[in-house]
Amino acid sequence: MLQMGVTVMAAAAVLGGPGGLLEGTLFMESHPPARSWESYTSSDSLKRPLRLNPCDREKAWDKGRVAARTMAFIGEAYDMKDEQLVVYKDVAHAKKAMRGLRAELARCADMKGEGHDRYRYFTKPVRVGDEGLRAGGLYFESSTRSVVVRRGAALYVVGESGRVSRSLPLKHFRGLIAQAEKMAVKVCDLPEAAC
User: What is the CATH number for 113?
Assistant: First the structure.
């Protein structure tokens, strides 16, 4: 019992407290100052849904989170970037979250609405971390591309606004994939990631 208490206290110290990660864990944390038309938001909430959220859920549907950080940038004319790292209590929960995300992407791949209510998602695998995918979302007036990577017990999501087509050419994802590769290495510094 005492050993388990010490382990929990050590994990809280490494993760920066309940729901939090150490400062500087995400690359976006070292952003330049926002201009008057830009905004940056940051949250350590465990209840935020994954940033790649094809079914537009309001709350997190995945279970077993022990730490999370989400950052988003919004500029002018649909300019958007985001980054999220979620650490789960074990590899099994992280694998289940990745499977769940794939199921969400399949379930909500083509929301047949009229005009601005219609959106579509396309996905393909990407070889980063233990498992990964790249996804593109097409909306009425914009599109987004994302890369999601699982490394051990951690899930990393990075996304941006940008051109998307059904074929999801790798050249449109190179920057996101490079960032995901760096995080797949960086996340292994967290003992909870179990790399």
Answer: 3.40.1000
